[in-house]
């Protein structure tokens, strides 16, 4: 039986075990462009982290390739949060409204998501028409 998992993968990927050699060969051919060695993944991760740091720096030595925006998040949740919270996400084509109900320590949290399409006339119109 053959396994489709990189030996040096930094992730805990599920192992796809196949005993049909022909199928294994087909899958390996189809996925070979998506499989990278650990060294490549770590290099990509480092580059991305470096770009984030540049984007967040007050006076960076050079411009980041990433556009960074302040999220105003001052601390991370610790699991004791209780209550209802609304999140709004306005993208270029969708507006998402998320109601999150936090139950506090040990309680299950609920997420309710509504998606709305942003009409084309609002995406392409002039700002003076708003």
TrEMBL record:
According to the UniProt record, what class of enzyme is this?
transferase
Positions in coiled-coil regions:
none
Catalytic reactions on record: a D-hexose + ATP = a D-hexose 6-phosphate + ADP + H(+); D-glucose + ATP = D-glucose 6-phosphate + ADP + H(+)
Keyword NADP attributed: no
Q: Which GO terms describe its cellular component?
A: cytosol; mitochondrion
Q: Which InterPro entries match?
A: ATPase_NBD, Hexokinase, Hexokinase_N
One Pfam family recorded for the sequence: Hexokinase_1
Gene3D superfamilies annotated for this entry?
Answer: 3.30.420.40
* Pathway the protein takes part in: Carbohydrate metabolism; hexose metabolism
Q: Which GO terms describe its biological process?
A: glucose metabolic process; glycolytic process; intracellular glucose homeostasis
The record's keywords, sorted A to Z, are:
ATP-binding, Glycolysis, Kinase, Nucleotide-binding, Transferase
Report the residue ranges that make up the Hexokinase N-terminal domain in this protein. 27-128
Q: What Enzyme Commission number(s) appear in the record? A: 2.7.1.-
Q: Which GO terms describe its molecular function?
A: ATP binding; D-glucose binding; fructokinase activity; glucokinase activity
Q: Which family does it belong to?
A: Belongs to the hexokinase family.
Q: What is this protein called?
A: Phosphotransferase
Please name the source species.
Oppiella nova
